[in-house]
Inverse folding.
């Protein structure tokens, strides 16, 4: 026996786990929160607890409730929490096996997964939020670094109080679910500003001619990758919201008024997608302009260097011709003396001038003389 190892859920048959014959291990979670409308009516009631068993008797006296669980490892603890609260053992693993988002309807229970986004510089951190739904309960499970629903729990009794006791359970569930999804969508959108501010900082770096060019290309790639990752989460969220908006699931309301709320969520996500794409276009165009300026600066520098090289070539040609003449006439075979000084200097000077003019004329005629544009 390995006493130091935790109990393995997968080794226990599903029928025994669901029947409660074998006790389930406790999840590794922070303090959970629950708000519920009592069956007898009246104001919403709040309860804090450390594990699912703390809420079971409380939920029996509730007409509808929202239970939020922050955990350290959602893949390990979600199944434990779900089974402890009466959900099927395969629901949580099935949802978590999807990428970014998931929608699972099993008539008497439902499961959703939505991405929660956090942005640090150009690092887009995506964490899943699990929604488990049955006729009188919505359970949200997320990792401890996701705090948006924890903050919302402070005002949970306020929006629960607005739910009319006369509504059917499907309507109550839909109202709570849309409020939770709306909170996640809005908090995701807040992090788009982080990407925007980092894009502005990158623009400042590009404007500085002294910035090391080796760091610019990776930063531009990181910014584009951050935008793409963020856009992926928006599209994933839209898929789930669109699956809900038609009200096909048994646990979702058929009320046109409440389904219109889901439609508003879909419109919000579409608007966020449009704004994100617009921001991407603005940042991309700005970076292209700055890159064009940088390229123009490099082109001006290259033209100046080419102009210097051209003039050096002309001067070299101009010096080469008289130097060749002087070398030839300086040979002893010509027997030159002081009496030849006048015509010799005239020949050297005139050949220098003619060679310089001829080299410049040929370079200019061939269009090899670079033009520097400031």
């Amino acid at each position: 026996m390995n006493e130091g190892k935790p109990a393995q859920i997968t080794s226990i048959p599903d029928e025994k786990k669901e029947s409660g014959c074998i006790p389930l291990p406790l999840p590794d979670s922070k303090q959970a929160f629950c708000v519920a409308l009592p069956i007898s009516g009246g104001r919403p009631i709040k309860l804090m607890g450390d594990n699912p068993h703390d809420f079971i008797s409380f939920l029996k006296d509730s007409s509808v409730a929202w239970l939020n669980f922050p955990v350290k490892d959602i893949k390990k603890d979600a199944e434990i929490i779900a089974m402890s609260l009466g959900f099927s053992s395969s629901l949580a693993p099935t949802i978590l096996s999807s990428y970014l988002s998931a929608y699972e309807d099993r008539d008497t229970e439902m499961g959703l997964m939505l991405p929660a986004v956090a942005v640090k510089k150009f690092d887009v951190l995506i964490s899943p939020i699990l929604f488990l739904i049955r006729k009188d309960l919505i359970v949200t499970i997320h990792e401890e670094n996701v705090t948006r629903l924890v903050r919302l729990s402070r005002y949970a009794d306020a929006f629960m109080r607005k739910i009319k006791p006369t509504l059917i359970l499907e309507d109550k569930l839909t109202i709570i679910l849309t409020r939770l999804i709306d909170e996640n969508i809005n908090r995701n959108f807040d992090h788009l500003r982080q990407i925007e501010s980092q894009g502005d900082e990158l623009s400042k770096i590009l404007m500085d001619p002294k910035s090391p060019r080796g760091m610019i290309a990776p930063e531009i790639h990181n910014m584009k990758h951050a935008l793409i990752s963020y856009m992926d989460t928006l599209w994933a969220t839209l898929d789930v919201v669109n699956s809900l908006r038609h009200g096909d699931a048994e646990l979702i309301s058929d009320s046109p008024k409440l389904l219109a709320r889901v439609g508003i969520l879909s419109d919000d996500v579409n608007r966020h997608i449009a704004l994100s794409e617009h921001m991407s276009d603005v940042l991309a165009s700005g970076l292209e302009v700055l890159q064009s300026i940088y390229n123009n600066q490099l082109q001006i520098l290259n033209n100046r260097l080419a102009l210097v090289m051209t003039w050096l070539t002309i001067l070299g040609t101009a010096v080469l011709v008289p130097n060749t003449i002087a070398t030839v006439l300086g040979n002893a075979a010509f027997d030159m003396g002081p009496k030849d000084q006048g015509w010799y200097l005239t020949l050297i000077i005139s050949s220098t001038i003619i060679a310089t003019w001829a080299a410049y004329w040929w370079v200019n005629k061939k269009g090899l003389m670079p033009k520097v544009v400031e």
